[in-house]
Specification:
This protein is of the alpha/beta class. The chain is built from six helices and twelve strands. It has a single domain, classed as Glucose Oxidase, domain 1, CATH 3.50.30.40. It is elongated, with a radius of gyration of 19 Å.
C-alpha cells in the first residue's frame, strides 16, 4: 500500500474503529467539536501560546498552508485565540481545521464556517487574546513540539477529528497493517450488526 493510499484510507476509516487497533495519540475527551460534527483531516501546524497574544496567532495564521490544521496550546487555558476573524482568515488560507487546547469564542461565526473549518476546543469563553506582540521575543513558539489534551503534537503530524474527538498520528509512522485492520473492521461491522438483529446466536458472533 502506497503512502497516498494509506492517507486516503485514513480519510475513510472511523475514529472509533482506529480506537480498536490504536492506544496512543487520542486526545482527552474534553477536546470536542465546537461547530458541528464534520470530519477533520490534515497536517499539524503548531502554536504554543504561552501568553494570550493575538499577534502570535496572526503570525501562525499567515504561515498556514492549504490542508494544514492549526493546533494551538493555550497557556493557562483561559483565553480564546480563535473567533470570527481568526476563522475567516483560516478559511481564506485553505486551513483544514483548528484544534485548540483551550476555549474559543464567537460560536455563531464558527458554526457558519463549520463545513469548511471544523473547530475543536475545550469550551467557550468571552475572554480573548490581546495584541501583546510576544512572538518575536520568544514568548510564544511557532512550529515546535506541543502537548495538547494529554497528547504530544509535532509539526507535520496527521490530525484527525470527528464527533468522537481528536487523534494525532505521526505522518512517518503510518502502519499499513493497522490501517488494513481498521478498514476491514469498518467494512464488516454492518453485516455483524445485521446478523445480531436477525437473531443469529450471539455466541457464534462474539469473540469470548
Amino acid at each position: 500500500m502506497s503512502r497516498v493510499e494509506m492517507l486516503e484510507g485514513l480519510r475513510k476509516v472511523e475514529l472509533p474503529t482506529l480506537g480498536h487497533v490504536l492506544e496512543e495519540g487520542f486526545c482527552h475527551p474534553q477536546l470536542r467539536p465546537m461547530n458541528g460534527e464534520n470530519r477533520l483531516f490534515g497536517i499539524a501546524r503548531t502554536l504554543d501560546l504561552r501568553e494570550p497574544d493575538a499577534v502570535a496567532v496572526n503570525h501562525a495564521l499567515l504561515a498556514l498552508q492549504p490542508g494544514e490544521v492549526m493546533v494551538i496550546r493555550v497557556g493557562g487555558g483561559l483565553h480564546a485565540p480563535v473567533g470570527a476573524v481568526t476563522a475567516a482568515v483560516a478559511v481564506a488560507q485553505g486551513c483544514a481545521g483548528i484544534v485548540v487546547d483551550g476555549p474559543v469564542t464567537d460560536i455563531a461565526a464558527l458554526r457558519e464556517v463549520g463545513q469548511r473549518l471544523p473547530v475543536f476546543a475545550t469550551g467557550l469563553t468571552a475572554r480573548t487574546t490581546k495584541r501583546l506582540g510576544t512572538l518575536p521575543r520568544g514568548g510564544c513558539a511557532h512550529q515546535g513540539e506541543i502537548e495538547i489534551a494529554g497528547t504530544t503534537v509535532h509539526p507535520g503530524d496527521l490530525v484527525l477529528g470527528d464527533a468522537h474527538g481528536v487523534l494525532v498520528m505521526s505522518a512517518e509512522g503510518l502502519d499499513a497493517d493497522i490501517l488494513d485492520q481498521a478498514l476491514a473492521s469498518d467494512r464488516d461491522e454492518p453485516e455483524l450488526i445485521a446478523k445480531i438483529r436477525r437473531g443469529v446466536p450471539l455466541a457464534d458472533l462474539l469473540v469470548v
